[in-house]
Amino acid sequence: MDRIALRRYAGPAAACLLLALAAAAAVLAFPGARAALGTPWANGALLALLLALAVCAVAALARRRWLSALFHAGAAAVIVGGGITAGHAETWQVALVDAPAEITPPEYRRTVVDGDVAELRGFAIETYPDGMPRQYRTRLAFPEGERELSVNRPLRRKGVTYYQMSYSQARDPYGRAWWATHLTLRRDPGAPVAFAGYGLLTLAALGMAIREARR
Amino acid sequence: MTVKTDALGLLLTAQAALAALGVALPRAVGRWLWGAVLPIGLAAIALRWAQVGHPPMRNLFEAFLWLPPILAAGTLLTRWREGIWTVRLDAVLGFVVAFPLAFVFSAEEGRLPPALQSPLFVPHVLGYMLAYAFMARAFALECAGQARPARRCLAWGFFLITLALALGSVWGNEAWGAYWQWDPKEQWSLATWLVYAALFHVRASRPWRLALLGLGLLAILLTVTWINLSKLFPGMHSYAGL
Predict the structure, then answer these.
(1) Which of A199, B138, B150, B186 has the least C-beta neighbours within 10 A?
(2) How far apart are CA B80 and CA B97, in angstroms?
(3) Domain limits of chain A?
């Protein structure tokens, strides 16, 4: 197949591939279909997609189609970021009980990740006048001092991010109830790569819109 | 079907009536009536904002409030940029949204849960509402044979849908520590994005452009209705019901 014929069919082939991916993404919303994720077939398909995007980005660069190159490079970066996340992200689920130190075993008030110690100093729930939770906040003590986290305001420290997830009630042996704060600790080296990909995609889409507006 | 009798309900009923009249009456009168949806829709948003004390975007009713004035602004923008009136097309789309706002959706007030208290809340939802309006107009304009304004709407809609998807992902990472959770609404938003991305890869003839624009609009409608509201798809967006 000569180069001109290849160019002629590459666009429609890419459009068909994107429509097939759209169908796959829609089907994956159904609960039973999610079992397909992480299987060798799914991983192989993603790898093939990554290669195709890399080829498209390089071909677009060679033809000086800068927006197309930026767009395909951005999509490739998102997939690379997703791969790094799937293979290397670490997650720790932690529940810390906000009860006096005298009656609480230390491991119920403390979390240790990679030798980094965080101790619970307090947990508070803010409510609306009707009693619905407005925000919940956890105060943690690190060797250098206290820091606070709440929903949507995570705490970042030494490559690990502390997220405020939820809370529950815990009871001591005397039947008294205490709040337990539920945190997720996560180290995700893939997230910045995926976000850089989002940036490139958005920039390319903006460029395409401006180009269309000027025509 | 319920009739809302408070001030907001009256504004929404007036908005639906003006959209219907914009479709039915001659263009010279219809453009003024449809144009009046812009201030009335903005007044409805301002009133709801004052009532609930937060940007009205918490559920489908509040998010849909933004669509009629955006569509009316789109009519004026197209008139200014392209020199053509698209009153009937936009008024039909506006009526499709304004009718359920006035007579179907519940206007019950609610508080913002902690997960929605983020600086990314407004840009994410508003980005999607603008994108959906642009995409609906792209389809309607293509149906009417206005290829150039349809292409412009598609290009700006695609930028906004890309931006809103990315912002939602970044927000998910800030709130829950994961930028992609295989949530049903995320999946369908991605499927919608992929359909529109396909359109940029083909120099399609008009029937194919129409088919792909229609498929994208169908994906949007299914995402905001069936996926959003059905109990079959529980997920991180479950609070965003009617």
Answers:
(1) A199
(2) 24
(3) 3-89+190-214, 90-187
Domain boundary among B92, B111, B130: B111
Measured from the Cβ of residue A45, the count of other Cβ atoms closer than 10 Å reads: 15
pLDDT band at B4 (very low <50, low <70, confident <90, very high): confident
Is B151's CB within 8 Å of A212's CB? yes
Of B67, B96, B111, the position where a domain reaches its end is B111
Contact A22 B184 (CB under 8 A): no
Distance from CA of A102 to the nearest CA of B (A): 32
The model's pLDDT over A109-137, given as tens digits with 9 standing for 90+, comes to 888 888 889 999 999 999 998 888 899 99
The complex scores an ipTM of 0.91
> What integer is the mean pLDDT of A73-82?
97
Closest C-alpha to A71, from B158, B133, B144: B158
Whether residues B84 and B159 fall in one domain: no
Range of the domain at B198: 113-242
**What letter would DSSP give residue A108?**
G
Do the Cβ atoms of B177 and A163 come closer than 8 Å? yes
- Please tell me the pTM assigned to this model: 0.91
User: Mutating which of B201, B205, B213, B217 best tests the A interface, going by the most A Cβ atoms within 10 A?
Assistant: B201
